[in-house]
Amino acid sequence: MWRLAERGFAANLAEPLYHYRYTNSSVSALRTREQVRTRWAIQRLAEARQRGELQNIAEALAQAEDAVPLESSFKQADHLMLAGKYREAFAAYLKLLGSHPRSSRAWAKLARLGVFTTIPPLRQACFR
């Protein structure tokens, strides 16, 4: 997809074309870390390709292993929230805050969980 987007026109549409749900047994929930790691590596490989450099997939994946732990933790907590596991999501966000107390992103996600659980009509707005 990255290579197609580099050669043609790609856009992020404002209106969703589909809706899917998360569950604790979904691939997104079970393989969060792998997906975040792979996405990070693909982005670095695309940047190297655009600069005309050689693309070393093994090296990009190895670097991604050290680069993505916080991102995968955020994504896993988000998946818990979307799967309706609010207590587990709350615990995951608190753990992130414990390890990164100055992270504005962690505080914002915890606030979003609060809005998400206490004001159901605003749930869709939490992800725009």
Description:
65% of the residues lie in helices and 0% in strands. With 128 residues, the chain is mainly α. It has one domain. The mean pLDDT is 82. It is globular and about 50 Å long.
Q: Count the strands?
A: 0
Largest sheet: none
Intertermini distance: 23 Å
The helix/strand class is mainly alpha
Weakly predicted, low-confidence segments = none
Number of helical stretches of at least 4 residues: 7
The whole-angstrom Rg is 17 Å
Number of domains: 1
- What is the beta-strand fraction? under 5%
Short overview:
The protein is mostly helical. The chain has helices at 2-7, 27-30, 32-50, 57-67, 69-82, 86-99, 104-118. The protein is 65% helix and 0% strand.
Which structural traits does this protein have?
mainly alpha, 128 residues, 0% strand
Helix-strand blueprint:
Elements: H1 2-7, H2 27-30, H3 32-50, H4 57-67, H5 69-82, H6 86-99, H7 104-118
Helix pairs in contact: 3-4, 3-5, 5-6, 6-7
